[in-house]
Amino acid sequence: MPNEYNLHSSDFTSLKSVSQKIFRIISKRLNVNTAYVALRGDKEMTALSSYNAKDLIVPEGYSLDHSDSYCQMVLSENTHSFYTNNVNEESVMRHLNITDDFKVKGFLGVTLFDLEGNVFGTLCVMDKEKENFTEEDVQYLEAMAEVLSHIIELDRTKFNMGFLNVPIIPITKGISILSIQGIVDEHRADKITQSVLHYGASHNINYFIIDLSGLIILDGIFPQVLIDLVKSLKLMGIEAILTGISPDFAQNQAGAVSLLQLNIKIVHSLETALKYIGFTLSEHK
């Protein structure tokens, strides 16, 4: 199954924030050194998040071809799980390179499903000692896998919403509008910066009209990301024009001073911004 998530490892912020606690619980419950979540790509399995109690066996970000990983045993089973007390006693596993590299014996893995029931990865544990895993252990790990699957789904939703929350509207060659709506938190700030700068470079943008009419300012603090964004655009040779300044923001001295120090063009409407660039709006008759 292709990787439908299209997220980099760093985008799984929710998983990273809670997985270590869950992995530690799993490690103690099953008496294993290592626990990890692996995402299935087109050809490889990649450890999105991992925990190693003592010995470093599976580092975070570790990637292997599907046919070279233990995960193939999990994903090929109709039961959607696989375990062995000693990988050296399994005909397929003992010949894999990772068996010599990892020097593990006990292994247990279960499948991760998305909300539509599609397989997208595995939750696995392993140890350098033999482990007498039971069906009860399998059921326990499956329950933990369900929790982690929902967390990963949350990251995918946040990732997709990040693109929806950066509406860039092309006007004509070299001119686009960025409409900022709602609250800009830290996660969304990163998405806005990356999306706008990449868009500006790839589309040869000369002017970015930034509409702030829908921006919500919390606790009177103007989002620093917008100050930094204007500076970055300027370094790229792209002129930013601000419009839609609300009365609340106009009364925010800290934010107003920060913008004025940038020596940026500020206008009261989109029409004025376009006129400044050299375009006029006329009614079609």
Short description:
The chain has 285 residues and is an alpha/beta fold. The protein contains nine helices and eleven strands.
Structure notes:
The chain has a six-stranded antiparallel beta sheet. The longest helix has 30 residues, at 135-164. The protein is of the alpha/beta class. The chain has helices at 13-30, 71-76, 97-102, 135-164, 186-202, 224-235, 247-250, 253-261, 270-277; strands at 34-40, 44-52, 63-65, 81-84, 106-113, 119-127, 168-172, 175-182, 207-215, 239-243, 265-266. The protein has two domains: 9-162, Beta-Lactamase (2-Layer Sandwich); 168-277, 2-Layer Sandwich (Transcription Regulator spoIIAA). Helix 1 (13-30) packs antiparallel against helix 4 (135-164). It comes from Sinobaca qinghaiensis. This is RsbT co-antagonist protein RsbR.
